[in-house]
Design brief:
The complex is a heterodimer of chains A (486) and B (137). Chain A has 13 helices and twelve strands. Chain A is of the alpha+beta class and 486 residues long. The longest helix of chain A has 47 residues. Chain B has a five-stranded parallel beta sheet with strand order 2-1-3-4-5, with helices on both faces. Classes of the chains: A alpha+beta (486), B alpha/beta (137). The interface between A and B is medium-sized, with 24 and 24 residues.
C-alpha cells in the first residue's frame, strides 16, 4: 500500500515538472525577440512546448486509467475475500472510484460492526427457525405417542375446556376431537363424577401431587373400571394451565383379581371339608367316643379316605395351576388314542365292576395317532371315564367311542353314560372350576376340578375341542376332538 | 357325665349336611352326649324334618346342594316353621354377614374344621338359653 502511494506522488511530481517545462518553453519562445534568422528557433520552442504538453496529458490519462484498473482489482480482491470468508463487510469507494477504506477507517469499522450485528441476528433467526421446526416435530411426535397409547388421554385448559384427546379417549367417551375442541368437558363427558374429578384437580392446583383414582362407569352398556391418573399442568409464573387425565382400563384386571380371590376361597373351602372330617374323626378316636374294634377300624378307614381325597384335590389344583401358568412340561409324541383308552379302562375296570357297570368299547385301529402327551391324555380320558362311572347308577352302561375323521384330519372321542345327567342350565358351567351340578352333588362327592382339568388338557395343551351334551335322568356324553398325525 | 346325658335325652337336634362323614361323626358325638339326633342330607329333607319333628336345635352346613344353609332356614320359616336356635357350620365363614345370620336366627357360625366336642358344648349352651327363654314365655 505504501509503495502505491509513493509511486502515485512521484508521478504527480513528474507531471508538475513536465508542465513547468512546457510553460518555460512557451515563455522563452514569447520573450525571445526573434531576429530575421531566428524565426526557426522560435517555432522549435513552441513545438517542443506543445510536445511536452501532449506528453503530460497522455501521462495523466495513463495514470488515471492505471489507478482505476488497480482500484477495481483491489475491490474485486476484497469482495472475493469477503465471499471466501463467508463474512459480511464493506468496501468504500471514493468519488474517483478508488477504494477509500484506508481514507475513512472509523466509518468502515462502524459499518463492519453494523454488518456483523445484522449477520449475528440473521444467524440467530436461522437458529430460532430450526429450533421452531424441532419443537414442531417433537410436538407432533408427542401427539403421535399419546395417540398410540392404549389408555385414554385427554387434556383440559384452565377453563375446563377440552384441548386434546387421543383416539382411545374419543372412543371411550364417544366424541370426535375435531367437533369438541374448546368445548367445556361437562358438555362432552357424560359421566358427572369424572367431570368433577377433573374440575377438582384443577382447583387443587399445582401444589397438590398427582393423584390416582379408581372409578367405574359404563362404556356404552358395559360397566368398566378405570384407574384414573389426574395431574395439573403448569403454565407461566406457576399458574394452572389445565389438567391431564389418563384413564387405564382395569376391568379385566379386576375380574382376574376377583377370580383369584374366588379361586382361593373355593380352594380353601374344598380343602377344609375333608380336613374337617379328618380332624373330627381323630378327635373322636382320641376322646374314646368309639370303643369297639369294628367302629374304630371304620374311623381309621374314613380318615384314610378323606386324606386321599385331600391329596387328590391338591394334586388337581397343582395340575391346573401348572397348566395355567404354562410351567407344566409337555412331551409331545405320536400317541395311539386306542392305546390310551385301553390303558385307562384297565385302571378303572375294578370301579366299574364294583358298580356292575359295563364299559362298551368302539375303538379305532391302533395306527390312528394324535400328537399328544401320553400321560396328560390318559389323565383326561380317565377323568371322563371316572365321572361316567361315578354319576351312573349301578347296572348302568358306559360307551367309549373313538372314530377317525380323516377328511377333517381329527380323531373324535365320545364317552357316554346312562347316568344322572346334567340340567340344561348347568351344562355350560360344568367346565368351570369348583362348579358342581345339583344332580352331581346329590349323586357323589367331588372337587369340581376334574372337568376343568380335562378342558385344559384337551384345549389348552392339545389344541382340541371338548364339549358336552346331556339329558337329565338319561345320561351325558362328553366328546373331544384332537388333530390326527398326518 | 350320666346326669348331663339324662338331662339331654329330651332334647332333639337336627343336623343338615351333605357331607356324609361330617353327618356321621356329629350324629355319633351328639348321641353319645345323650341327645336325640335327626339327620338330613340336604336342605329339602331338612325342612321336612324341621317342620315335622320340631327340633330344639338345628345344626346346618352352609354349602349344600339345592339350597344352602341360609336358604334352608328361610324355607323353614316360609313354610311356617317356628324360630329354632341354629348353629351354622361353614368353611366360608367370611361369606356370611352378621346381618344375614341375625335375620335368619343363626345363633352361632362355626368355622370348619371344627371340634366335635366344641359342637357339643355350644349345643348345650344354646339349648339351655333356649330352654330358659321358653320357660319364661
Amino acid at each position: 500500500m505504501t509503495m502505491t502511494l509513493v509511486g502515485k506522488y512521484r508521478l504527480e511530481w513528474l507531471l508538475i515538472v513536465v508542465l513547468v517545462s512546457a510553460v518555460g518553453c512557451f515563455t522563452l519562445a514569447v520573450s525571445t525577440k526573434a531576429p530575421a534568422g531566428g524565426g526557426r528557433l522560435h517555432v522549435e520552442l513552441v513545438g517542443l512546448g506543445l510536445l511536452v504538453l501532449l506528453a503530460a496529458i497522455l501521462a495523466r490519462q495513463w495514470s488515471y486509467r492505471r489507478k482505476t484498473v488497480r482500484s477495481l482489482e483491489h475491490i474485486t480482491t476484497r469482495l472475493e475475500q469477503l465471499n471466501q470468508d463467508q463474512t459480511g463487510g464493506c468496501v468504500l469507494i471514493d468519488g474517483m472510484g478508488a477504494e477509500a477504506s484506508e481514507i475513512a477507517p472509523d466509518t468502515t469499522e462502524a459499518l463492519l460492526a453494523v454488518i456483523k450485528q445484522v449477520e449475528d441476528l440473521r444467524r440467530e433467526s436461522h437458529s430460532l427457525h430450526i429450533r421452531g421446526l424441532i419443537c414442531e416435530t417433537q410436538k407432533h411426535q408427542v401427539e403421535q405417542m399419546l395417540m398410540s397409547v392404549s389408555d385414554a388421554v385427554f387434556v383440559t385448559n384452565r377453563f375446563d375446556e377440552l384441548t386434546f384427546a387421543n383416539e382411545t379417549a374419543e372412543q371411550l367417551l364417544g366424541f370426535r376431537m375435531r367437533d369438541c375442541k374448546r368445548k367445556n368437558i361437562d358438555e362432552i363427558v357424560p359421566d358427572g363424577a369424572l367431570v368433577r374429578l377433573l374440575q377438582d384437580t384443577r382447583r387443587l392446583g399445582l401444589n397438590h401431587p398427582a393423584r390416582v383414582v379408581e372409578h367405574s362407569f359404563n362404556n356404552g352398556t358395559v360397566p368398566c373400571t378405570f384407574s384414573i391418573s389426574l395431574r395439573c399442568l403448569g403454565g407461566p409464573n406457576d399458574t394452572v394451565a389445565g389438567v391431564v387425565a389418563i384413564l387405564h382400563d382395569i376391568t379385566r384386571e379386576k375380574e382376574i383379581e376377583q377370580g383369584k380371590a374366588e379361586f382361593v376361597a373355593n380352594v380353601s373351602h374344598e380343602l377344609k371339608t375333608p380336613l374337617a372330617s379328618i380332624k373330627a374323626y381323630i378327635e373322636m378316636l382320641l376322646d374314646g367316643e368309639v370303643q369297639d374294634p369294628a367302629s374304630t377300624r371304620d374311623f381309621y378307614e374314613t380318615i384314610s379316605a378323606e386324606a386321599d381325597r385331600l391329596h387328590r384335590m391338591i394334586e388337581r389344583i397343582l395340575a391346573i395351576s401348572r397348566i395355567e401358568s404354562g410351567s407344566d412340561r409337555v412331551l409331545r409324541e405320536p400317541v395311539s388314542m386306542t392305546a390310551v383308552i385301553k390303558q385307562v379302562i384297565k385302571v378303572i375296570a375294578p370301579k366299574a365292576k364294583a358298580k356292575n357297570i359295563e364299559i362298551e368299547e368302539h375303538l379305532a385301529p391302533v395306527y390312528f395317532q394324535v400328537d399328544a402327551d401320553y400321560d396328560l391324555l390318559c389323565q383326561a380320558v380317565q377323568n371322563l371315564l371316572v365321572n361316567a362311572i361315578k354319576y351312573t347308577a349301578p347296572g348302568g352302561h358306559v360307551v367309549v367311542d373313538v372314530s377317525p375323521d380323516e377328511r377333517r384330519g381329527v380323531l373324535a372321542v365320545d364317552v357316554s353314560d346312562t347316568g344322572v345327567g346334567i340340567a340344561g342350565d348347568e351344562l355350560p358351567r360344568v367346565f368351570e372350576k369348583f362348579y358342581r351340578g345339583q344332580s352331581a352333588r346329590k349323586m357323589a362327592s367331588g372337587s369340581g376340578l376334574g372337568l376343568p382339568l380335562v378342558k385344559y388338557i384337551i384345549e389348552k395343551i392339545h389344541g382340541g375341542h371338548l364339549s358336552a351334551t346331556s339329558e337329565p335322568g338319561k345320561g351325558s356324553t362328553f366328546s373331544f376332538e384332537i388333530a390326527l398325525v398326518s | 357325665m350320666p346326669d348331663m346325658n339324662e338331662k339331654n335325652e329330651n332334647k332333639k337336634i337336627l343336623i343338615v349336611d351333605d357331607e356324609p362323614y361330617i353327618l356321621h361323626v356329629l350324629a355319633l358325638k351328639l348321641r353319645n352326649a345323650g341327645y336325640d339326633v335327626l339327620t338330613a342330607a340336604d336342605g329339602e329333607e331338612g325342612v321336612e324334618l324341621s317342620l315335622s319333628e320340631q327340633p330344639d336345635l338345628i345344626i346346618a352346613d352352609f354349602q349344600m346342594p339345592y339350597m344352602n344353609g341360609l336358604e334352608f332356614l328361610t324355607e323353614h320359616r316360609r313354610r311356617g316353621g317356628r324360630e329354632i336356635p341354629t348353629m351354622l357350620i361353614t368353611a366360608r365363614e367370611f361369606d356370611i354377614s352378621d346381618r344375614q345370620a341375625q335375620k335368619r336366627g343363626i345363633a352361632i357360625v362355626l368355622a370348619k374344621p371344627f371340634s366335635p366336642q366344641q359342637v357339643v358344648e355350644v349345643a348345650g349352651r344354646l339349648l339351655r338359653k333356649d330352654g330358659c327363654s321358653r320357660n319364661v314365655a
